Recover the amino acids of this structure.
């Protein structure tokens, strides 16, 4: 993926929605690689998005000081590809409002109910937190 291109595409999508629905508030969410893409896009677009919701997206190489939008992250402590300590360090350095939960009983892809890695309790709690965070920053109804 070309970083410049995917950031531009995601920003254009949010701009398109805002042009057609002027009161639209747009958040950005992603799972796995998409979680990283959401974080990258949020760090490079200032306050274009009202919040970012990474589900087990890598934080390695991202500057937490560049993130200017609230973040709600959901990660698994047993994820061998995304160390929990690095995620904690990234979120603890953020200067924006944030909510991080690292689920002790979950690994990578814990939200995917079609995989053996699915952890229902973590997925349910993560979704509840996501909606509450979205409501807080967008004033939406779930």
């Amino acid at each position: 993926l070309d970083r410049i291109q995917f950031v531009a595409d995601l920003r254009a999508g949010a701009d398109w929605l805002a042009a057609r629905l002027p009161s639209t508030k747009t958040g950005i969410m992603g799972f796995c690689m998409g979680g990283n893409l959401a974080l990258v896009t949020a760090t490079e677009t200032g306050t274009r998005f009202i919040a970012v919701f990474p589900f087990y997206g890598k934080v390695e190489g991202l500057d937490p000081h560049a993130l200017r939008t609230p973040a709600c992250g959901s990660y698994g402590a047993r994820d061998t590809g995304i160390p929990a300590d690095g995620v904690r360090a990234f979120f603890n350095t953020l200067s924006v409002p944030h909510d991080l939960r690292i689920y002790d009983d979950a690994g990578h892809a814990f939200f995917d109910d079609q995989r053996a890695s699915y952890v229902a309790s973590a997925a349910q709690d993560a979704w509840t937190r996501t909606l509450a965070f979205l409501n807080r920053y967008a004033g939406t109804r779930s």
